[in-house]
Amino acid sequence: MTTIQKVKWGVLGVANIAVKKVIPAMQAGRWSEITAIASRDLSKAQAAAQQLNISRAYGSYDELLADREIEVIYNPLPNNLHVEWTIKAAEAGKHVLCEKPISMTVAEARPLLAIRDQTGVRIEEAFMVRTNPQWVATLTMVRDGRIGQVQTVTGYFSYNNQDLKNIRNIRETGGGGLMDIGCYMIFFSRLIFGDEPRRVVSLIDEHPVTRTDILTSALLEFPSGHASFSCGTRMTPYQRVQIVGTNGRIEVQIPVNAPPDQPCKVFMDDGTDLSGGSIQTLEFEPCDQYTVQGDQFSQAIRENKEPVLSLEDSIKNMAVIEAVFRSAKTGQWETPDITALK
After folding, report:
1. Taking the complete model, does pTM exceed 0.85, yes or no?
2. Which domains, ranges and CATH numbers included, belong to the chain?
3. Pairing between β-strand 7-12 and β-strand 32-38 as defined by DSSP bridges
4. 82 in Cβ contact with 61 (< 8 Å)
5. Beta bridge partners of residue 265, listed in sequence order
6. What percent of the chain has pLDDT over 90?
7. At what angle do helices 133-143 and 183-193 cross, to 10 degrees?
8. Which three-class secondary structure state does DSSP give residue 207?
9. pLDDT, position 188
């Protein structure tokens, strides 16, 4: 068996998603090694390093970027800091896996293309769902025509977060439902149709104090069908994606927060029995999608291959997010602007 030379990772910040989910998952991977973690508060970095058995702790992000042994940076900083520190990491010669959304706006994301091309590093947005086996299988079934031609994609994603000081409820740092969870619903619809929406129309309810969107619903017109979604941050927790085609439908039970310790379920239905008798349940063995994501990015670096998700694709997703925001203000159909990629 070939010995794998693990890729050395550094983590910017001690965000909950990093400390509680991503780092422990990546430490279980075959290709990834978490070597260092940084915080603007050295004591926090040291505490996280001790807790997670990470060998190095730094009291600033710049110190971590100066560490020559670090090959890749995981950037889970607040949304408004994604581009700034991804660029600084690239300038330091580090590859970057950056949490979604990749930026606050399309315009802000444009420099990422230039720095990637200038430095030759790989930059990928951390849509961990893309490499989850349940989604790999779902997309294969769609491409193979198992449900005929896709007509509609419908998604729901909600949680109930009443803490006004939580970063997800702070507008200035990129909080709100659309940026946090609606982005997944847009991402899924684009993946499933394999195309970009021509135009979108939306409705948004904002919180009176935080001014973040707490309920967003949108309709996306694709060349070959329609997608719709609703996302909310003051609702009962729920997730689901329905894909309906000319010859059947696919339902993904937990499309985003797939549990790492339980099987994932995807339902196939040919529509012959509306009471559910024709549903086929596909089960996928438990796996941690953050482990899979980290290992695939590390392997791409070791083998000098492109990451699963391109930076161009991430900017296209941001263009749709922007169009959804614009439509809520204008009350009209809006066209996603991807001129940054032309």
Report:
1. yes
2. 7-128+292-309 (3.40.50.720), 129-287+319-330 (3.30.360.10)
3. parallel
4. no
5. 283
6. 97
7. 40
8. coil
9. 98
Q: What is the DSSP letter of 90?
A: H
Quick check: 197 and 220 in contact, CB under 8 A? yes
Which distant-in-sequence residues (6+ apart) come within 8 Å of 63 by Cβ? Answer: 38
Q: Is 164 exposed, middle or buried (0-12, 13-18, 19+ CB in 10 A)?
A: exposed
**Would you say 143 and 216 are in contact if contact means Cβ atoms under 8 Å apart?**
no
Q: Which two tokens stand for residue 219?
A: 């309709």
Helix (H) or strand (E) holding 186: helix 183-193
User: Rounded to an integer, what distance in angstroms lies between the CA atom of residue 87 and that of residue 70?
Assistant: 16
Beta strands 123-125 and 32-38 are unpaired
Residue 260 and residue 188: Cα distance in Å, rounded?
20
| CA 97/CA 32 separation, integer angstroms | 12
pLDDT tens digits, 13-69: 999 999 999 999 999 999 999 999 999 999 999 999 999 999 999 999 999 999 999
DSSP state of 168: G
pLDDT tens digit sequence for 274-320: 998 999 999 999 999 999 999 999 999 999 999 999 999 999 999 99
pLDDT tops 80 at residue 134: yes
Structure tokens at 53: 């058995």
Distance (Å, rounded) from C-alpha 197 to C-alpha 333? 11
Q: Which residues pair with 110 in a beta bridge?
A: none
Question: Which pair of tokens denotes residue 67?
Answer: 């560490």
pLDDT of 138 = 98
Please give the helix or strand (H or E) that residue 106 lies within, else none. Answer: helix 106-119
Measured distance CA(38)–CA(36) in Å, rounded? 7
Instruction: Please state, in angstroms and rounded to a whole number, the distance separating the CA atoms of residues 342 and 338.
Output: 7
Q: Per-residue pLDDT averaged across 97-125, rounded?
A: 97
